Amino acid sequence: ACRPGFYKASSGNVKCSKCPPHSYTHQEGSVHCGCEKNYFRAEEDPASMACSRPPSAPRNVISAINETSVILDWIWPADSGGRKDVIFNVVCKRCWPGPRQCEPCRGSAHTNYTFEIEAQNAVSSQAPTIRHYAAVTITTNQAGESVIPIVKGIVHITNKSVNYSHSCCSEPL
């Protein structure tokens, strides 16, 4: 049997393996190692893979706006959580001044939009209370009507930065 801190995923004449980073076992004869607090394995991750965590928030978000589009740029998160499968979830919200009252962007007029850019990886769903996101609020021309019936976006990823192009509507923002 394998001693604590080691595991053997299958029976037979196979050597015991040391627990991968951010995992442990305190029992003899373990067939896998459990993850440390706030570390996880995705369903498809093998027992030999290190446990990982959700990525940190994107950095240095900037926005540019024209009559039909919002372009958001940000820098890759400082910490990928130990994974390479980082994706970005961009959420558009309509917000009112005063106490933080926001709702998802829909098809009615408004001039303040908040975009939350959340970095996610394959284990983010296992830590739903841990959300790492950056937010940017955009104020559009109040003289014109602002309508966002459907949020559509394209994310372009380069080595260290990300560009999200958001096109929205037939009417100006």
Indicate the topology.
Blueprint: E1 6-7, E2 17-18, E3 23-24, E4 34-35, E5 59-65, E6 69-75, E7 87-96, E8 101-104, E9 112-120, E10 133-139, E11 152-157, E12 161-167
Antiparallel strand pairs: 1-2, 3-4, 5-6, 6-12, 7-8, 7-9, 9-10, 11-12
Please give a structural write-up:
By secondary structure, this protein is an all-beta fold. 0% of the residues lie in helices and 38% in strands. The protein is built from no helices and twelve strands. It has strands at residues 6-7, 17-18, 23-24, 34-35, 59-65, 69-75, 87-96, 101-104, 112-120, 133-139, 152-157, 161-167. A hairpin with a 3-residue loop joins β11 and β12 (161-167).
Short description:
The chain has strands at 6-7, 17-18, 23-24, 34-35, 59-65, 69-75, 87-96, 101-104, 112-120, 133-139, 152-157, 161-167. It is mainly beta and 173 residues long.
